[in-house]
Design a protein that fits this description.
Layout (H helix, E strand, L loop, with lengths): L1 E4 L7 H9 L2 E2 L7 E6 L6 E8 L5 E6 L4 H11 L9 H7 L1 H9 L11 H11 L4 H15 L2 E4 L2 E4 L4 H4 L10 H15 L5 H6 L2 H8 L7 H13 L8 H10 L8 H8 L6 H21 L7
Antiparallel strand pairs: 1-5, 2-3, 3-4, 4-5, 6-7
């Protein structure tokens, strides 16, 4: 099933994948990409092939799922293409710092988890593990218990649908407590408690409160599930790297207080989360550059 979309506002799929995605690619020219995931509603999984034409149009093909329209909308949400970004460049005109970062990063937008369900599972699995360990466990779960989808002769595995995850009793590398927490997440997903549209429709505090009813989910994970799983365009995170980026790029003496961050971010409305992610990504990139510069020799 094929789809097309003309992005509202500037958008580069190549840059999105370079900074955030890490998706599988069908060709060496960096597009198209392929993402595989359980489709919300949980009747099936899909592999969605996404490419961008030289003129900017987004083309997509949904493979394997009977929920083609829903799978396409979910893929667009992952790429922040379901939101109207036409006014995003205007933020850079109001705020020169954001304007420079937008130009340097091709008007980068957030890339989200495939769903709040997958976000919650990822946070619980990865808690107190190195990133590479958490990723390996999620990949094993997908390969062992997830739906397999073939695209142009290549096989892709989606993360297990919640009705499958809830029946898994042993997962190599995870203690029983984490498996119990994953079961609670799966049950919540099946009951509609992690629906992306429903979480987006709630006031932020209520959305946080809803996901914090999940066992093992505190303030930090709740923010990640809502902001990076459901995806909110106009909200402010409170993570260390974003605050450090604000300090760095706005030449502050120290990390901004909550009030200072709110004041700076007034100019970012209605794209405060997009700008926060832009600052976060830029700070990470700046740290990578700084760490790659050899220290002066000590004489």
């Amino acid at each position: 099933m094929d789809f097309t979309l003309t992005p509202k506002g500037p958008y580069s799929l190549v840059e999105q994948n370079r900074y955030f995605g890490g998706w599988a690619q069908l060709a060496e020219n960096e597009t198209p990409i392929v993402m595989a995931f359980p489709v919300e509603g949980w009747e099936s999984s899909a592999a969605v092939e996404v490419a961008q034409d030289p003129g900017g149009q987004i083309r997509g093909t949904v493979h394997a799922s009977s929920q083609g329209e829903r799978a396409w909308r979910q893929a667009l949400a992952v790429l922040s293409l379901d939101a109207d970004g036409a006014g995003y460049p205007d933020v850079g005109k109001r705020d020169p710092v954001i304007g420079r970062l937008q130009r340097d990063h091709a008007f980068l937008r957030p890339v989200l988890f495939h769903s709040p369900y997958e976000a919650a599972c990822s946070f619980v699995i990865g808690h107190r593990l190195r990133m590479v360990q958490g990723r390996a466990i999620r990949q094993r779960l997908a390969q062992t218990f997830g739906d397999a989808i073939d695209v142009d002769g290549k096989r892709y595995h989606a993360f297990p649908r919640p009705q499958r995850l809830v029946d898994i009793q042993e997962i190599a590398g995870l203690p029983a407590e984490k498996i119990s927490r994953l079961h609670g997440i799966a049950q919540a997903a099946l009951q509609g408690g992690l629906d992306r549209d429903a979480l987006r429709a709630l006031p932020l505090a209520e959305a946080y409160a809803r996901v914090k009813t999940l066992r093992g989910v505190g303030d930090f994970f709740a923010a990640g599930i809502v902001l990076r799983g459901a995806g909110v365009v106009d909200a402010l995170p409170n993570d260390e790297i974003t605050l450090a980026g604000v300090q760095h790029f706005y030449n502050l003496a120290g990390p901004p207080t909550a009030g200072e961050f709110e004041a700076i971010a007034q100019a970012w409305r209605p794209y405060r989360m997009w700008c926060s992610v832009l600052v976060h990504a830029s700070e990470r990139r700046a740290r990578d550059v700084r760490s790659s510069v050899p220290s002066p020799a000590v004489r």
